[in-house]
Amino acid sequence: MTSPTSRPQDAPRPRPGGRTARIRGRVHEATLAELAEHGFAGVTVEAVALRAGVHRATVYRRWGDVGGLLADFLDAAGDDEWEPPDTGSLRGDLTALNREVFDALTARPSVVAALIAASFHSQKAEHAQRRLWEDRYARCAVLVTRAVARGEIPPRTDPRRLLVAATAPVYHELVLLRTTPDPGLPDLAAGAAALAAGGGAFTVPDGPG
Amino acid sequence: MTSPTSRPQDAPRPRPGGRTARIRGRVHEATLAELAEHGFAGVTVEAVALRAGVHRATVYRRWGDVGGLLADFLDAAGDDEWEPPDTGSLRGDLTALNREVFDALTARPSVVAALIAASFHSQKAEHAQRRLWEDRYARCAVLVTRAVARGEIPPRTDPRRLLVAATAPVYHELVLLRTTPDPGLPDLAAGAAALAAGGGAFTVPDGPG
């Protein structure tokens, strides 16, 4: 089990603007491009190294394998300034969030979909994907707190449960069922979750524990 | 694109009890056992043939590759007498349904989870998985019709949308987020979807089109 803060073996901590950071950036770009073009099964350390203009021995030493490359890419992707939408209503916020997910999953090629597929092949990619998602859900908790403060939903609404209910149908249709994308889906799923939240479907018991 | 009724190339239609049907059954059992033991990446046509006691040339000719084996297994799995739960209430039915999904995904080894993972590797397995899911959602539509008849939810509630909303969080947590299974999840997700359905979150406009 990889710890949430682990980095690829022997990887020096990148200094922004330094040579290490530049190499890491080039390798991430190359990983992304190879993934978008060929999908997980078609990505090789050799092709990434060639594309990045980095010696393949360096890539093997720092990232180990394709799973390591993807995991480090995902960790870097999570290390951003992303903030959840703030539209003034819970339904509006959840809809905007779902539209971001929908757009990412229906982009052609979809890097997000390719990374999800990769998480079924590589445990390193799986753990990194999970860290990224958990970080995103944690950042979105504020969206629930604001809705409680506005009196839209009951206090003690569990943010994660509500956020999973709102977003899960979008992932389910596009990643697992692979149905033709329905542009109305983000709003529909958000509206249903907001309605259920208003009715207290995601509240947790009072008190400690 | 595989049509919903396609069968593996050259596969004779199985006659129940006939030699062809017996071989198909043995091959399915062997596929299942190999998948459960080794996961998709570890399944080979050779090992399945050996385990089933069938010549590997026969397996190659009838099923083509591992994707073809899984697709035929999934098609056979969908060809059953399964019926959705009938507990007397929408929430009860959705909870029972979610518990079935939860149990299948948390079984160790989970054949269902392995088949989902396989759908990211093999287009044949992907199409078969999709056919199975769409068939299950279609069979469950009666559960929504009954709830409408009981007056629990508005007429014109779209069965598929409601069923996806109810079940998606279970798949999302266990297949994509891979969180520690929460035994309360089936009931929570079912309750939220039933509440939203009662409020009209899944109704479709009146009239044709």
Describe the structure in your own words.
Two copies of one chain form a homodimer. By secondary structure, the first copy, chain A, is an all-alpha fold. Chain A folds into two domains: 19-78, Arc Repressor Mutant, subunit A (Orthogonal Bundle); 90-198, Tetracycline Repressor, domain 2, CATH 1.10.357.10. Chain A is built from nine helices and no strands. At the A-B interface, helix 7, helix 8 and helix 9 of A face helix 7, helix 8 and helix 9 of B.
Summary, kept brief:
By secondary structure, chain A is an all-alpha fold. Chain A is built from 9 helices and no strands.
Poorly predicted runs of 5 or more residues of chain A? 1-10
- Quote the average pLDDT of chain A: 89
Hey, roughly how much beta strand do the residues of chain A contain? under 5%
Helix content estimate of chain A? 55-70%
Q: What's the total number of strands of chain A?
A: 0
CATH class label of the largest domain in chain A = Mainly Alpha
Helix/strand/pairing category of chain A: mainly alpha
For the biggest sheet of chain A, the summary is: none
Gyration radius over CA of chain A: 19 Å
Count of separate DSSP helical elements of chain A: 9
Output the CATH homologous superfamily of the largest domain in chain A.
Tetracycline Repressor, domain 2
Distance between the termini of chain A: 27 Å
Determine the oligomeric state from the structure.
homodimer
Number of domains of chain A: 2
CATH architecture of the largest domain in chain A: Orthogonal Bundle
Find the CATH topology of the largest domain in chain A. Answer: Tetracycline Repressor, domain 2
